[in-house]
Amino acid sequence: MVLSKISSQSDVSVHSTFASRYVRESLPRYRMPDNSIPKEAAFQIINDELMLDGRPRLNLASFVTTWMEPECDKLIMDALNKNYVDMDEYPVTTELQNRCVNMIAHLFNAPLGESEAAVGVGTVGSSEAIMLAGLAFKRKWQNKRRALGLPCDKPNIVTGANVQVCWEKFARYFEVELKEVKLTEGYYVMDPEKAVEMVDENTICVAAILGSTLNGEFEDVKKLNDLLTEKNRVTGWDTPIHVDAASGGFIAPFLWPELEWDFRLPLVKSINVSGHKYGLVYAGVGWAIWRSKDDLPDELIFHINYLGADQPTFTLNFSKGSSQIIAQYYQLIRLGHEGYRNVMENCHQNAMFLREGLERTGRFEIVSKEIGVPLVAFSLKDNSRHDEFEIAEMLRSYGWIVPAYTMPADAQHITVLRVVIREDFSRTLAERLVLDVTKVLHELDNLPVRLHAKSTAVVEEAAAAVVVAAGEGGSGRVNGTFLKKTEIETQREITTYWKKFVANKKKNNKNTIC
Amino acid sequence: MVLSKISSQSDVSVHSTFASRYVRESLPRYRMPDNSIPKEAAFQIINDELMLDGRPRLNLASFVTTWMEPECDKLIMDALNKNYVDMDEYPVTTELQNRCVNMIAHLFNAPLGESEAAVGVGTVGSSEAIMLAGLAFKRKWQNKRRALGLPCDKPNIVTGANVQVCWEKFARYFEVELKEVKLTEGYYVMDPEKAVEMVDENTICVAAILGSTLNGEFEDVKKLNDLLTEKNRVTGWDTPIHVDAASGGFIAPFLWPELEWDFRLPLVKSINVSGHKYGLVYAGVGWAIWRSKDDLPDELIFHINYLGADQPTFTLNFSKGSSQIIAQYYQLIRLGHEGYRNVMENCHENAMFLREGLERTGRFEIVSKEIGVPLVAFSLKDNSRHDEFEIAEMLRSYGWIVPAYTMPADAQHITVLRVVIREDFSRTLAERLVLDVTKVLHELDNLPVRLHAKSTAVVEEAAAAVVVAAGEGGSGRVNGTFLKKTEIETQREITTYWKKFVANKKKNNKNTIC
């Protein structure tokens, strides 16, 4: 006789994950659950929900590295439980960081003696690096003004309007006025002449960008240096330059080594670069490098005991993982100049191929430059019937994430699509993208009613939004009135709401590209 | 006839890693090499050098998590190439962050309505969280003072002298005066009465610590709240409280849920907690939670477009990995209240076991409390012959990393050893540690000459240090003179140098514990 076991008696641990009750029950979203669940179930639940995130490799919106060699993945994994800040316990990791700083400082032509150590720190990214550099400029300026008995309560910083949002953040958090040089149509980077005009005695530094986030163009740092040197000579000030080389810092030295943008220019006192962009490391590493010890006020430095030796630190964070530092060191020694040059050449070639492919469609204006960060920024020659946002949206259904955004103030009537060419964006993918863009253009041409169809499709959503907005205002009456309006009035209201919404969306988009 | 191939003709790629020339040649340490090397060689070189780092699991100096379940390791690995800041591309990751914020806010008894969203952000660690919280207090205080037409150029913050270095950093970088309540012997946390006495109209907040870094003791936040409420009533100010619960935030709610230290106290406006300490996630995640929207000035918030919806952000960093956020979510739903309670109870039990074991030796004074963060801080009853630094050093040769440090100002004659009990420090390891400490004590007792032997052993090192120091001063003459001195003079000089060096080491140590 066979005795069959009834299911409730069987041990829960033998259930396969998808046969367990954990995938059937809803998890509390905003409170910690009372009881534990098996680790396999927790893994599966989270893993499966994350399937709905975009695919990082197809994200053409971002410079940030999405692929590394498996060997490096292993090093990263092994270092997950190592705290970067425990320098006394993990001296080798600290040493690797110091080596990276020195390698990058040399790459940027820091004027170092043969056995002189470079001055710089590893950061979480360029945002932290920029805040540290800005803080150093601010403190140096304050100390100088105080020594001269002059007021030091109105510091300002001069940048182009094309800077990334972190400069605005630095300005707001550290109470420095941000003076932006406006852009003009067809000229989307900071004009050195206008910038130098804006410099006054309260300017803590002029920030130039090597690789504007909007179109990848390199700003003319050499000209800025020359003009500013002249102004400093005339006025007696010594306004310095910071170069935000977040994206271009690992490109220019390999593709255009003769281009002078770094410490070869005497007024450049500090440079930041993102290790996680063309430094070819996953998100979470940046570098701030100073020209010399004198450019980093001592009072900002905290000293940590490192194997009985003194390790100066300058950071806004404290405990963090060591993986990214180790990964950066891996890339620097694995690739060397040769490897980085080859990677950057590939990126540049693929960018040129994509550029040509898009030009061949005859429908796009290319706004990125051939010399610059390998990206292609392009806008429709004629966007009267369909605009760049529609193209971006339709490309999503093909799997591509290509952002569309408007240019900043004074050029905001220009909308561009931007495709970033990373190391892992091969020729095959570039060909495929050109093909898909062509398909999308074709679709748009053959669907003249699409605009209408789309606008009615959004009516529902927008209406819901209006209702929600009214509801949030706490006024049920607005909601009530709204329902009594004629259909045309309603449609008009919705259109207005929608336009405002899209405008906001575009506005929000502009500065937060990474 | 067999034709043998000469070795130089064989393809380099067939060589085993340790047979290749890359492990034979010295890599440039401070400059990028010109050529690439194979990835296997790069992996091996770095991996092997890292063997010389301490073992994270045996690092008893730090609260920071060194072990997670393999399922979570896998989630972390899969998310390595996901940029946390790309909220539009990775909406699920953003959602998981928001869920974590809500779970933690509820855990801290934030006064939230049923469907009200909590206010908080994920950070790289408690340092970033504290800077954000401090900045919010500063800006709120400035706005209030400006509205009243009062000066707002002399903000200060009141804390105990036992705070972690990041408070000092916040004060220095954001130009706020740090007013420290001094400690006294036998009382190593902030005295609420003294703290409230120090509060004036320029105080932006009083910062209390839940789990003092030095001995794990919880400060009496309830008493502070009561005293400050009274002072606010009398003076008409409304000085708020911040709780730095970096280490205790995930302990108190599970072990002593009735202890009132969090948003149950009306003056507590913000709390920070390290996800990478008892939140049980690897280094790189912290949380800042505000009581309500009103406690976070709007002007500090930057808005990011998140799937067409507005996602407010408040951070000093920008691009960073998503792994830690996902790992935190994993722990919260995997463990639930039940799991966290069990883990914390285990830690506490093991701490009590270790405490008893150390007390049984009869040689130690325990300075940590039974209620507090699970750590054991202890000092020698008699350190006239051998001190705590010697014990720490000798424990290293057994593989243990146990730090010794002196207490801050006004209690600096006390030296303590501190063992942090993490989740992965099991009873077996605790037993082993007691055994090894006993052995070390025995060794020290039976080697009365050891102190002498040690001092001669360091002579060489210290002499080298003096020479280097002199050399660095650029004065070869000092070096020359030094060589002509008598041996006794030399020994004296070295002893002085060494004492200063050790004193500095102790001083440096005190605040930078994590």
UniProtKB/TrEMBL annotation, chain A:
Its EC number is 4.1.1.15. It catalyses: L-glutamate + H(+) = 4-aminobutanoate + CO2. PANTHER family: GLUTAMATE DECARBOXYLASE. The modification N6-(pyridoxal phosphate)lysine is found at residue 277. InterPro entries: Glutamate_decarboxylase, PyrdxlP-dep_de-COase, PyrdxlP-dep_Trfase, PyrdxlP-dep_Trfase_major. It comes from the Eukaryota. Belongs to the group II decarboxylase family. Keywords: Calmodulin-binding, Decarboxylase, Lyase, Pyridoxal phosphate. This is Glutamate decarboxylase. The keyword Lyase applies. GO terms for molecular function: calmodulin binding; glutamate decarboxylase activity; pyridoxal phosphate binding. It holds the Pfam family Pyridoxal_deC. GO terms for biological process: L-glutamate catabolic process. The keyword Lyase applies. NCBIfam families: Glu-decarb-GAD. It comes from Linum tenue. Its cofactor is pyridoxal 5'-phosphate. GO terms for cellular component: cytosol. The lineage of its organism: Eukaryota, Viridiplantae, Streptophyta, Embryophyta, Tracheophyta. It is an enzyme of class 4 (lyase).
From TrEMBL, chain B:
Its EC number is 4.1.1.15. Its cofactor is pyridoxal 5'-phosphate. GO terms for biological process: L-glutamate catabolic process. It catalyses: L-glutamate + H(+) = 4-aminobutanoate + CO2. Keywords: Calmodulin-binding, Decarboxylase, Lyase, Pyridoxal phosphate. GO terms for molecular function: calmodulin binding; glutamate decarboxylase activity; pyridoxal phosphate binding. Belongs to the group II decarboxylase family. PANTHER family: GLUTAMATE DECARBOXYLASE. This is Glutamate decarboxylase. It comes from Linum tenue. The lineage of its organism: Eukaryota, Viridiplantae, Streptophyta, Embryophyta, Tracheophyta.
